[in-house]
Design brief:
Elements (H helix, E strand, L loop, with lengths): L1 H22 L5 H25 L3 H6 L1 H23 L6 H12 L7 H8 L4 H27 L5 H9 L2 H14 L6 H26 L9 H25 L7 H7 L6 H5 L7 H27 L2
Helix pairs in contact: 1-6, 1-10, 1-14, 2-7, 2-9, 2-10, 4-5, 4-7, 5-7, 5-11, 11-12, 11-14
């Protein structure tokens, strides 16, 4: 347990550095936008690509059932959440939309990658694919759920275009193609890509710290913040744990369980610029779940260590 706490502490210290940059007025919201774009368009796509090109195709085949089960659970959670918040008029549309995205979309890349890859050795390739699954489903099934509630559906062509232009999806398609074709990447290029890869996690963790320092109107959102925190940090990972153990994939499902136990990502805050979602609630739940995860993540890491 001491090793787990040391690992988590080192990750969150980088986030604290971002907090200090904001408190000392060195960084502001413009930094958040720039650093997040770096992570979204450069850092993590490069990280995913470099991990995939070094992955053994046989390992990918062996893990196919894990990835399928992972995707199925995420879709099930999106569908159930959408149906529940759509029953009657008991929840305002912008609050319901916030639940749909925040319940399933944890900080699987920016926080999850450095944390899980450090705890579960040799999991970089598996993590890259799981992160891509979350990204794919967030910008396809997740967005379709929001459009369903708004009574507006984009064409299949537009939906497919949005998916195929997502940097994470482009990275996994290129990386998978190179891996399956056994394409040898020139050493000088791989060295450059590996340097960028190492910068991805620290940059976005600092961005998260900068983002967390802001004014919040939490009082009127306390019930929703509490509900989303419980769902995100306890109930969703518990579902992954139960399904993983019942299906017999327990030991192979460790990465999936830990990814499911991560706090709410900043991504919903960006999606809220396109769809009616409550940005105040999103900001509050990102901060609250991130802080609480300092205590819940060691518990889940200990639980998966017993599998």
């Amino acid at each position: 347990m001491a090793d787990i706490l040391t690992l988590i502490g080192s990750i969150f210290l980088i986030t604290l550095f971002g907090v200090l940059l904001r408190l000392f007025k060195i960084a502001d919201d413009q930094w958040v936008d720039v650093l997040n774009k770096y992570g979204l368009y450069i850092g993590f796509p490069v990280l995913i690509f470099t991990n995939l090109v070094t992955l053994d195709p046989a390992q990918l085949h062996q893990m196919a059932s894990i990835f399928t089960l992972n995707a199925g659970l995420i879709i099930l959670i999106i569908v159930i959440t959408t149906l529940i918040v759509s029953l009657g008029s008991w929840m305002r549309p912008e609050i319901g939309n916030t639940y749909i995205i925040c319940v399933f979309l944890g900080n699987v890349a920016y926080l999850g990658y450095p944390l899980v890859s450090s705890y579960i050795l040799n999991s970089a390739g598996e993590l890259s694919i799981i992160i891509s699954i979350y990204s794919l489903l967030a910008f396809s099934i997740g967005i379709i759920a929001l459009e369903f509630r708004a009574g507006e559906f984009e064409s299949i062509k537009k939906t497919a275009g949005r998916i195929l232009t997502n940097p994470f999806i482009i990275a996994i398609l290129l990386g998978s193609a190179c891996m399956l074709a056994s394409l040898k990447i020139p050493q000088v290029l791989m060295m450059a890509l590996n340097t960028i890869k190492l910068s991805a996690s620290p940059v976005v963790l600092i961005s998260l710290g900068i983002f967390m320092v802001r004014r919040y109107t939490v009082k009127k959102h306390i019930p929703h913040v509490a509900a989303l925190s419980l769902l995100r940090l306890a109930i969703v990972p518990a579902i992954f744990y139960l399904v993983g153990t019942v299906s017999g994939f327990g030991p192979q499902f460790k990465v999936s369980i830990l990814e499911a136990a991560l706090p709410v990502a900043v991504t919903p805050f960006m999606i809220a610029t396109l769809y009616p979602m409550n940005r105040e609630l999103i900001a509050a739940v990102v901060v609250v779940t991130t802080v609480i995860s300092i205590f819940t993540l060691p518990v889940w890491m200990y639980i998966v260590s017993l599998l």
